[in-house]
Amino acid sequence: MAKMIWKIVLVTGVTGVLLGLAVTGTLIAQLLMTEETVGLGPSTATGIIAGILILIVSFLMLAAGLVFVIKNRKSYKA
């Protein structure tokens, strides 16, 4: 059962990293394409910060899940 939980954490981390990259990349691209008409307003800055926070938390989840999945795999083979 514990092995399954870490696999779920791993998949959630990968999904979160992809989501964070999509949100941050989209907002930065929007900022670069509409530089003259839309500045770095509070809504754009808030979105970029939220995307970066999602990216960081998801990366930590991904790393923790990966470590425990590899750790459990090695202890299972021994």
Description:
- With 78 residues, the protein is mainly alpha-helical.
- It has one domain (9-77).
- Helix content is 87%, strand content 0%.
- It contains two helices and no strands.
- It has helices at 2-33, 42-77.
- Helix 1 packs antiparallel against helix 2.
- The longest helix has 36 residues, at 42-77.
- It is rod-shaped.
- The mean pLDDT is 83.
What's the mean pLDDT score?
83
Through-space gap between termini: 19 Å
Sheet having the most strands = none
How many individual helices? 2
Give me the secondary-structure category: mainly alpha
Instruction: List the domain count as a whole number.
Output: 1
Radius of gyration: 17 Å
Extended strand count = 0
**β-strand amount:** under 5%
What's the helix-strand series?
A: HH
Give the % helix. over 70%
Low-confidence stretches: none
Net shape: rod-shaped
Protein topology:
Blueprint: H1 2-33, H2 42-77
What attributes does this structure have?
87% helix, mainly alpha, 78 residues, single chain
What is the compact description of this entry?
The protein is mostly helical and 78 residues long.
